[in-house]
Structures are given as structure tokens and as C-alpha cells.
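Render this sequence as a predicted structure.
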Amino acid sequence: MRLGSIAKVMSKATVLAASLACLSLPANAGSGIEVEMNQAKIVKLARAADTIVVGNPQIADAAVQDASTIVLTARGFGVTNLVVLDADGNAIVDAQITVIRQTASSVRVYRRAEVQTLSCTPYCESSYKTDAERTSEAEMSTSQ
């Protein structure tokens, strides 16, 4: 086989492998709503909502802005769900909510069992910590 033919076969094999890898992902991969701790996210609805349910309000809270706008606020780390129903009981939204830690402009300093989170925007200063963040850091330091 010539070098050009080998390259074409390798290229086709790479494309086939990438295609198969995409097919093996779960249907809901990448779906859901991510909210950073101490942040809020606006969710626009396709139609007016009648009922709003958050699976675990200790992780996230939903406030109604108007009939088609919800504001999600991160309360604690973890995963919960959001269900929004219209007046007829039909689902408008049925999504997973994941509360994540902000990593883009923060630095974590570990000193033995102590963890300090610094907000670096642009200068590094000690950041505000919610009870959920303090609990998370305490659990991480005891597991080490």
C-alpha cells in the first residue's frame, strides 16, 4: 500500500471512530442548566407558566419574574431538577440544574487542612463564602 492510500484509510478510520463516539453519548449529554454558586441565571419560557417546582430548594431556588421568565439562584452545590408546567399541566421545562463552583477567576489555596478561596478580579482577595461552600470545603479537607 502506498503512503497516500494509508493516510486515506487512517483518515476514514478516524472519522468513523469519532462518529461512533458521538453516537455512544447519552441523549441528554450536555443538556441541563448550569448555575455558578452565588450567581443567578434567567430562564425564558416558550409559553406562560402556571406551576414551578424545584426538586431540592437547598440547591437552587426559582423566582418568578413574569409569566414567561424565571430567575434561578444557586443555593448550594449539587444537582436537582426544575419542572415548569403550563395551565393545562403540560411540561414546558423538565431540566436538570447543576450548581457549580466558579473557577474562571478564582484561586484555591490549600494549607494542610485549611482551604482559602480567593477571588482574582483583577487582584486576589478573600471571597465571600456561603454556608454550602464552607461545608463543601470542610468535607474536602476531612477526606484528605
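Summary. Residues 5-30 have pLDDT under 50 and may be disordered. Residues 106-142 form one domain.
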